[in-house]
Write a structure and sequence with these properties.
Strand content: 15-25%
Helix content: under 10%
Distance between the termini: 38 Å
Number of helices: 1
Radius of gyration: 15 Å
Largest sheet: 3 strands, antiparallel
Structural class: mainly beta
Length: 84
């Protein structure tokens, strides 16, 4: 299946989960309770939630969103950063 943008640019399938992006929480270091739990981070910042991206899309957009953040103690226990 192929998808095209309004200007005719062929879109690429995004590596998110149908417009939602997931990441794994830490491995339990420094007292975090997540222990590698997959966390739904919400709408993908690369494709804008469509599941398709332009070839020139910023593929590091999701990484930059969470860069430098850390959950300690009772980190996410599912949902959109539960307990944030």
């Amino acid at each position: 299946m192929k998808a095209y943008d309004d200007d005719g640019t062929e879109l690429v399938r995004c590596h998110c989960d149908n417009g939602e992006w997931w990441t794994e929480c830490c491995n339990g270091a420094n007292g975090c309770d997540c222990h590698g739990q997959p966390i739904n981070m919400g709408t993908c910042n690369v494709c804008g939630g469509t599941g398709w991206r332009r070839p020139d899309a910023d593929t590091m957009a999701n990484v930059r969103t969470i860069q430098g953040r850390c959950f300690v103690g009772a980190g996410p226990t599912s949902g959109y950063w539960a307990g944030r």
